[in-house]
Every structure is written in C-alpha cells, then in structure tokens.
Amino acid sequence: MERIVLPGIPNLNQLEVYLSNGGFEAAKKAFSQTPDDVIDQVKKSGLRGRGGAAFLTGLKWSFMPKTTNLPKYLCINGDESEPGSFKDRQVFEDNPFQLIEGVIITCYAIGAKVAYLYIRGEYHKWIKLMQNAIDTAYELGYLGEKMKSKFGTDFSSDLYIHKGAGAYICGEESSLMNSIEGHRGYPRVKPPFPAQKGLWGCPTTINNVETIANVAPIISKGWEWFSKMGAAKHPGTLLYGISGHVNKPGVYEYPTGMLLTELIYDVAGGVPGNKKIKCVIPGGSSMPPLRGDKLEGVRMDAESLKEVGSAVGTAGIMVMDEDTNLLKVLIRIAHFYHHESCGQCTPCREGTGWMEKTLHRILEGHGTSKDLDLLISVANNIEGNTICALGDAAAWPVKFMIERFRDEFENYVKKDVTIPVPNKVHSMRQTAVPLADIQK
Amino acid sequence: MTFKLTEENLARIEKARKKYPTALAAVMDTVYIAQEQNGYISTEVMEEIANVLGIDKVNVLSVVTFYTMYHTKPMGKYHVQVCTNVSCMLRGSYEIWDRVKEKLDIDNMQVSADGKFSLEEVECMGACGYAPMIAINEDYYENLTKEKVEEILESLK
Ligand SMILES: Cc1cc2nc3c(=O)[nH]c(=O)nc-3n(C[C@H](O)[C@H](O)[C@H](O)COP(=O)(O)O)c2cc1C
Ligand code: SF4
Ligand code: FES
C-alpha cells in the first residue's frame, strides 16, 4: 500500500532524510516547466481539496489571473478546528518539508511570492515544529531569496506562519483572510471570490494543508500515477482520522474510496465490546450523520458519500456505538455551532441558539414531537441563507440527525411525556408524608 | 499604571511586522506577545499595542474580544482546558470535566483563589483520536483517564 502524505519513513521530518528520499526533486522539476504546465498536471491528476469541500485543486489554481500588477498570495489552511479532524497536525509533525515543497511549487504555479500558513493557535507544539522546519528551509535555500541560486531560477517565495487564536470560523477561507489581515474572523460575502479579491484585495488561493502536501508527489511521480489511485473521481489517498468508539483511534492514510466498514473494523480495530454501531459522522461534525445499519457498502470518497446523503468533509470519522445518546451528541454539536457562529447573519446567529435551546428543552423532558419538526424547520431556514457555509454546517447535523434517527428522537420526546405521571405521584406523597417514611 | 513592552518583545514584534505588508496584520502576533508578558490584555496593554504598531486602539480591541485565546482578565498560572466536544465526549470527557472541576473547586472561566489554576471548557482541540484530552497552558495531555488527570493536576501543585 502506497502512502503519499505520511509515508512512514523514520525521521522524514529531518531535512537530510527528506532530501535523501527525493526531497525537493519535484520542485526542481516544476521550476523547469512553465507554471501553466504545473497547473495542467495538477488538473489532470484529479486532486481535490482535502479541507472539506473537495473542490478540484488544479481548477481552483487556474482561476488566478495571469495578467495583473497586484501581488498574488497563497494561504495554506491549517486551522483544523472541525470537530473530528486531527490530520493536518500529523503532516506538521511527520512530513513538514513535503508541505513546504508543495507550497513553493504551488506558489510557482499560481505566481505567488508570499504564502501564509494559518495554524490554529492551540497547536503551539505543531507551530514550533513547523517554524523549525521553515527556518531550516530558509537556511538551506529551499525558501526565500536563496532559492534562486539553489534552484537556478529567478523565482522565489516566502512562507510565514500566521497563528490563529481560537475561532473555528477562521477555517472558512474568507474569514481566514480577514484574520491574517488583522481583523476579526468575519467571513466575506462572495463574490468576489478570493482569486479575484483575496488578501488585501489581491488575487489569493486558499488550500488545505493535506491538499498542498499532495502536490510534490504528483509532480515527481506524475499525474497519471496519482489519478489511478483510489476512487476515479476523487483520486489519491485520504488521511482518515478515526475517533470515538473504536479500539484503535488515530490517523490512517489509505486510498480514497475505502469501505467505511473496512476502516472502522479492520483499520481501527472495531468497536469496543463488539457493540453495534448506531451512528457514524464520516467527515467532521458538519457532515450529515449516517445510520449504523446503513454502512454496508458505503465508500469514503466525495461521490460515494454524496450518493448516501453525506459528504467526505475532512474525512474525520466519528463512530458512535449502540449505547450512545444521540440527543446528547446533537446538543453538543448544536452548542458548538452556536458558540462558533460569528454573528453576522441573523439566521445563523439566532437559529443556532434556538436549536440549542430547543434540544435542551427536550433533554430536560419538556419536548414534544412538534419540537422535532420545529428543529428541522429552523435548520431549513438557516441552510442556504447565510454568508458562509457555517450556517449549513450547523443546520445539517440537526436536520439529518433527527430525520435519520427519528425513531430514537421520538423516544426522547415520548418518554418524557409519560414522566409527569410518576412526577406527580412523587410530589403528592412528598407533600402528604415525609419521603423517608414512605421508603421504610 | 502604564504598560511597556520589553525591548526583547519589541524586537519580536518587529520581526512579526515584517511578515506582512501592513502593520495591522501583525496585531494577532503582537497581542500574543503582550499577553505572554502581562498575563492578560488590559486597556493599558491595548494602548501600548496600538502605539507600537501605529494602529487604532479600536482595531486591537476588536481582535482581543473576538478570539477566545486572548484573555481580558488574569488567568491562573496553569490554565486548564478540557475539551468536551463529540469525539472526547464519546470517550468520557464529561467525567474528566467533572473531576477537574471538583479537584480545582472552580467552574468554567474561573480562577482559583490562590491564582494557581483557571479552568475552561474548550471546543475540539484537534486531538479527537487521542481522546479524552486536556491542555494545560500550551501543552496537550492525551488519552486520559480520571486517575491520570488527577496525577497531572497534583504534579502541578
Ligand atoms: C466554518 C468552516 C470552517 C472551515 N474550516 C476549515 C479548516 O479548518 N481547514 C480547512 O482546510 N478548510 C476549512 N474550511 C474550508 C475552507 O473554507 C476552504 O474551502 C478550504 O480550506 C479550501 O482548501 P481545499 O480546496 O484544499 O480543500 C472550512 C469551511 C467552513 C465553512
Ligand atoms: S453563516 Fe454564521 S458564521 Fe457564517 S458569516 Fe453568517 S453568522 Fe457568521
Ligand atoms: S473532540 Fe476533543 S479534541 Fe476533538
């Protein structure tokens, strides 16, 4: 099994080791071609973004204007705050130079002289690791002015880390740019798209860390090699992050299109206590959940997951066993989006709060079946009516969790309707005789 | 009381400033550096940041109040962050949360009387596969049990 991003070579995070394994050969090759040739190869490889939307990477790069007097920028998105996602940190830790090589090739292809790597602030350790790698790369001429003599070109690019400070929304690309500029992380209205008007109003491309870490191997081994791996329409590998109720949680690199059951049972060692699976969220908490009894044959790639009504997202797979209380899970998810909504759009700001409140009411035993319909309708009113996709991300889990597990949610509201009876008995007796006397 | 950034920190800010075409873009790095020096971001600290970068104070305030990792009041020497998001929750993070709360005898966003600890319930920290987890200041502690958490907290006392 060939692994592209995390090949498992010991000490690959040391530059000498990276170099002795063919490091920066791809960059040399790329610099001997035209930028358009490089974009063309990435297009043909079929590489799609690993940050959530699975957008075609080569196509995105081709949106960058060729004739402009403005500087162009590349942003690499390592905000990694989507619950269930913990893969990019593995790239920082194990293969930082392949990421750096991907950055300089991408900069060359799109004509950017400056790249910003946005890393979430909580990742102090990984920011330090990445900064060390960047410093080494500068010293030895793989970044900055020295690139010119190292590679014998007139191209050079700079790479800086921008440290986030605790805001999930900054993973959204336009919010990320505002954050780099020193503003609050408020998403921008699109259009204009970043390729027209991005950082400081200049043409900008934003890609996920894992996406960029795939670029060098595509150039060195060829687009054909890459396009033949995994699912035809979403080729390559994925860093599957498997968490929750599995015996061996962790990040595993396998081809796209793997069977979800194979990942859970063979790769992640199955469910503790051999319990049944109730629910799986396949791509981070924003993606529609799947029923445990409908996992057979489901494959982990953009197209296959779309067919079963979900999405690949970040390939962060959250597994929940049969004993999981889905109401509590959904409340936690709803709380997250409420907390992280930036508050610019009314449907998102108000709707996320309303959903959280209504779910709490159900948990407290005051819910009715109508509340379930209400929740779905609030979710529908958020979806598609907001500036950024956080609105959809907040709506989907609520809508699909209730729709797909209606049986369970009906139970939460029904059971609660019967509660007033014992309650009444309890309180009546309490007022008549002290509780302790009854218990004797 | 006025707050002044140290020479060393001014040099760090100067370096951060060079990463960007505008001074404003260096505000997040600068707030971090100032918070490191002062422990939290007071009005005086914001004024100093605005002066040093030559930007409007409103811009500093706007950023400081948006991002959760900037603190506008003093936190404990050890800022304990417990993730309770889904992947952690499925592996018992609420038990960890309760245990930490009990042990430190403070609630969310409170500081212990001796100023040693502060506590925060945080959103997903990107450690979902190594859940449950807590972070203390800048360090992650993963694959925890209630016992392990207790040991860690005790080692800090
Ligand atoms: C609320 C929200 C949060 C996001 N968080 C991230 C993130 O942490 N990392 C990431 O790469 N993309 C994230 N995205 C997706 C980005 O907006 C963007 O599509 C992506 O970085 C593009 O890179 P790609 O084409 O390589 O996937 C987020 C999107 C939304 C709406
Ligand atoms: S959808 Fe939500 S997070 Fe996105 S811009 Fe609107 S209020 Fe902010
Ligand atoms: S859910 Fe706790 S680290 Fe992701």
For the structure shown, list the relevant keywords.
heterodimer, A: 440 residues, alpha/beta, Rossmann fold, Ubiquitin-like (UB roll), de novo design (two linked rop proteins), five-stranded mixed β-sheet, four-stranded parallel β-sheet, 21 helices, 13% strand, disordered C terminus, B: 157 residues, alpha+beta, Arc Repressor Mutant, subunit A, Glutaredoxin, four-stranded mixed β-sheet, 7 helices, 4 strands, elongated, binds flavin mononucleotide, binds iron/sulfur cluster, binds FE2/S2 (inorganic) cluster
Describe, in plain words, how this protein is organized in 3D.
- The complex is a heterodimer of chains A (440) and B (157).
- Chain A has 440 residues and is an alpha/beta fold.
- Chain A is 47% helix and 13% strand.
- Chain A has 3 domains: 213 residues, Rossmann fold (3-Layer(aba) Sandwich); 92 residues, Ubiquitin-like (UB roll), CATH 3.10.20; 87 residues, NADH-ubiquinone oxidoreductase 51kDa subunit, iron-sulphur binding domain (de novo design (two linked rop proteins)).
- Chain A is globular, with a radius of gyration of 24 Å.
- In chain A, 52% of the residues are buried.
- Chain B is 44% helix and 11% strand.
- Chain B has a 4-stranded mixed beta sheet with strand order 2-1-3-4, with helices on one face.
- In chain B, helix 1 runs antiparallel to helix 2, helix 2 crosses helix 3 and helix 6 packs parallel to helix 7.
- Chain B is elongated and about 50 Å long.
- The model of chain B has no long low-confidence stretch (mean pLDDT 97).
- The structure holds flavin mononucleotide, iron/sulfur cluster and FE2/S2 (inorganic) cluster.
